[in-house]
Design a protein that fits this description.
Layout: H1 5-31, H2 75-85, H3 90-99, H4 106-119, H5 123-133, H6 148-160, H7 166-181, H8 185-193
Helix pairs in contact: 2-4, 3-4, 4-5, 5-6, 6-7, 7-8
Length: about 200
């Protein structure tokens, strides 16, 4: 029995599909992981895949800063926000930040004012903002997380603006060197870019 050209195409296509299906199913049954007998009521767990040695170690996630211990409408914060809304000058923002009364939210309120003044080019404010980020500085920093790289940048801006920040930069440099010796990649990178 002869097969016409059009029918021959369909026969070859069906044969190809059947062969591919058989190979796929055979591979599944040959290479699948054997199922271990598990007591009823429990699911079989797949073993953890081994970590590839050429991958860098996973980074430990940085925890977020602690939640504030005060209400969002705390008096010092509200005073700082009001002053910023009303267009306080950078110089007056620094004065107001230094004059805020002692309270749990004082550090965060002062930071808002100082950051505004520092962003406006006030060198004294830049130095004070740097202290919030400086891990060697013991001044209360509210909910601002310590970050040596950001502290370094603000100290440099303060120094470029005429503030004497050499003592703080030297102290921060020693701290960064110690962290780099402990294996911190971020500290090593900061040291490499230190100017």
């Amino acid at each position: 029995m002869a097969i016409s050209g059009n029918n021959r195409f369909w026969v070859i296509l069906i044969a190809f599909i059947l062969a591919a299906s058989i190979i796929t199913m055979g591979g599944y049954f040959i290479f699948r992981e054997p199922v271990k007998s598990v007591p009823t009521g429990k699911k079989a767990e797949r073993p953890a895949l081994p970590r590839m040695t050429n991958l860098p170690p996973k980074k430990i996630a940085i925890e977020p800063p602690p939640p504030p211990s005060y209400q969002p409408d705390a008096p010092a914060l509200e005073q700082a926000r009001t002053a910023l809304r009303e267009g306080i000058t950078p110089e007056d923002a620094v004065v107001l930040a230094k004059s805020l009364s002692e309270s749990p939210e004082r550090a965060d309120a002062a930071f808002l004012l100082l950051e505004y003044a520092a962003d406006s080019g006030n060198a004294a404010a830049s130095e004070l903002v740097a202290r919030y980020y400086d891990p060697t500085d013991e001044t209360p920093s509210g909910t601002i997380r310590k970050n040596p790289e950001i502290a370094y940048e603000w100290y440099k801006k303060a120094s470029d603006g005429g503030q004497d920040t050499q003592i703080q930069l030297n102290r921060l440099h020693r701290w960064v060197e110690a962290q780099a010796k402990k294996g911190s990649r971020e500290a090593s990178l900061l040291l490499k870019n230190w100017r």
